[in-house]
Amino acid sequence: MSRQFWPLYGLRLTTPRLELTLPDGEVLDELARVAADGVHDEASMPFSVPWTDGSPQDRARATFQHVLGTIAEWRPEKWTLSLAVRCEGKTVGRQDLMTEDFPVTREGETGSWLGLAHQGRGIGTEMRAAMLHLAFEGLGARHVTSGAMTDNASSLRVSEKLGYRPDGLMVESVRGEARTVLRLRLPREAWEAHRTVPVEVTGLEPCRELFGA
């Protein structure tokens, strides 16, 4: 993919085990296959938008369309950075950062998923730590928010370890049922106090105009 016209393809976040990049064709295919293999127990639904319902092919296509859609719809005033996560050379999941009017609000929201085969190894914490480093250290965020169903213990544990604080409850309609979501907020000072994962960011400078930063 051309970095000349879309420099985000040159952005890289690295941690001791992980590399996060905007997926090109080959990595995007790998990411779609990870989604097809499943990202959660089918008896539960951890997402407000139940994009994982349907067949493995449906999940793969939803992943493909989501990533390409974020590129097509990107504006400095409103963007979603959707990075593929690779662990020791293998694609394992996706980490997103979303925001609107970032130069004014200095606030973003994280979202992510991890393939079932790769859960329980601390990867979820490490990949979110990488994106938080980009948001706070790279782009100058003041707050980052997230959210999880109140029964999603694994996601809530990740947020707690990284310093997020409860920020109220929301009720959403998911699969025709009312589900309670706990909003979470991470101020800059709390992020600084809970930093444990070393992160390196490369390729950011050519992207600053796109970020509106």
From TrEMBL:
Family annotation (InterPro entries): Acyl_CoA_acyltransferase (IPR016181), GNAT_dom (IPR000182), Ribosomal_N-acetyltransferase (IPR051908)
Highest taxon of the lineage: Bacteria
Residue span(s) of domain N-acetyltransferase: 26-189
SUPFAM superfamilies with a match to the protein in the record: Acyl-CoA N-acyltransferases (Nat)
Pfam family, one: Acetyltransf_3
Protein name, as recorded: GNAT family protein
Species of the source: Streptomyces flavidovirens
